[in-house]
Sequence to fold (201 residues):
Amino acid sequence: MSVKDYNSFTDGELIEHASNGDQLAFQYLVKRHNGWAYGFVLKTVRNPEAAWDITQEGFVRVFKNLSEFRQESSFSTWFHRILYNLCIDHWRRTGRRIEVEYQDVLSSGDTGPSGGRGHIFKTPEKALRHTEIVHLLEEALGELSFEHRTIVVLREIDGLSYEEIAEVTGCPRGTVMSRLHHARKNIVQHLKRHGYVSSEI
Fold:
């Protein structure tokens, strides 16, 4: 009897095994995607406790709907959409309040499913500037609308394509590009107001 090498399975293969009752396959799927999923939700709702609850609820919904996954799109895109909708529900329940209860989220080092990550400066000489700019970026994200902030996180941190973001948010590609343009413009203006020039942004 051969031993399954779950680490070598694609997401689709893990889902297929999980949908056939293989609980270990689902555990590997959770392990593979838990980091970026929590990071995405945290950057979106900006509340660690709520982000944890939403991420766990997201995996519950994945488990309940394994048979609905169609491999025309990637699992990460499908899961992003589930999490995005849960974030919208949270946003509406809390009266659209934004709680800032975390530090250095953008420099956490967690990469998205596509390998994207926040603005990270690696040279020691820029360490102080890095800390300051991360704080300012967090402030700038907090000032954006939910829709604009989510687009920035999906594109700049999680590394999704415009087409994937359109699928996640249910918006046309043109709307995605327009929101991202305005969000970037507002972030740059926020940084410039605090003395940063274009070459540093």
The chain has two domains: 1-99, 106-201. Residues 187 and 193 are 10 Å apart (CA to CA). The domain at 1-99 is CATH 1.10.1740.10 (Rna Polymerase Sigma Factor; Chain: A). Residues 98-109, 117-122 have pLDDT under 50 and may be disordered.
